[in-house]
Amino acid sequence: MADPWSFWSPSAPARSEFREQSSLFIGCLSPAASEDEAGLFLRSLRREFHDATHHCWAYRLGWTEGLRSRCSDDGEPSRTAGAPILAALESRDVSDACLVVVRYFGGVKLGTGGLARAYRRAAVAALEAADLEARTLWEDWLVSLPYAAQGALRRAAVAARVELGDAIYDELLTYTARVPLGSADRFSAALRELSEAWKGGVAWRSK
């Protein structure tokens, strides 16, 4: 995704499966807004596939400075399962998601390289089966200005992809503005110009 302040997240659980040398790999993807939600998803799959050989997983939560991620090989050789699953999430800029690959061992060893490729393939297949929606980081601002300046504010908001919310009608007009972080500098510059035009009569701050 070109916008560094945006990422993809699954809107609903998704699954995909395939066989490799008699082993069955089932990729299971779910939205997860917290470590607790990721843990609940993993536990539900361990109950559903209680007879599986491995339940390898990775999750990513948040974005930019707040991004957190973890992964597990669940008994497979080191870095042959969890790391490839996590890499699949990273390569597609997916976060707020948990991806579990369930394996039923079919009796034929794949080797470390073969395992890593199979887990990555299962993870990618689950991502391809999912409905991924774009999410943009934003913050709420309060913008106060004279009533006569609201037309200029609306034009600036449209240009910066800012959503203007409810207004408070007092001596000045005060809007709640939902500002994408990627547009914050542009919107601030527009507000500075507007403030100069109205001789300092425009003020704004984060909520």
Supply database-style keywords:
alpha+beta, Ribosomal Protein S5, domain 2, four-stranded antiparallel sheet, 207 residues, single chain, 36% strand, Alpha-Beta Plaits
Explain what the structure shows.
The protein has 207 residues and is an alpha+beta fold. It folds into 2 domains: 130 residues, Impact, N-terminal domain (Ribosomal Protein S5, domain 2), CATH 3.30.230.30; 70 residues, Alpha-Beta Plaits (2-Layer Sandwich), CATH 3.30.70.240. Helix content is 32%, strand content 36%. The chain contains 5 helices and 11 strands, in the order E-E-E-H-E-E-H-E-H-E-E-H-E-E-H-E. The strands form 3 sheets. A 5-stranded antiparallel β-sheet has the order 2-3-6-4-5, sandwiched between helices. The protein has a 4-stranded antiparallel β-sheet with strand order 9-10-8-11, with helices on one face. The protein has a two-stranded antiparallel sheet with strand order 1-7. It is elongated and about 75 Å long. It starts with 5 loop residues before the first strand and ends with a strand. The relative contact order is 0.18.
Major beta sheet summary? 5 strands, antiparallel
Strand segment tally: 11
CATH architecture of the largest domain: 2-Layer Sandwich
Q: Can you list the strand order of the major beta sheet?
A: 2-3-6-4-5
Rounded to the nearest angstrom, the radius of gyration is 23 Å
N- and C-termini, Cα separation = 28 Å
Helix count?
A: 5
The percent range for helix content is: 25-40%
Class by alpha and beta content: alpha+beta
Any idea of the CATH topology of the largest domain? Ribosomal Protein S5, domain 2
CATH class of the largest domain: Alpha Beta
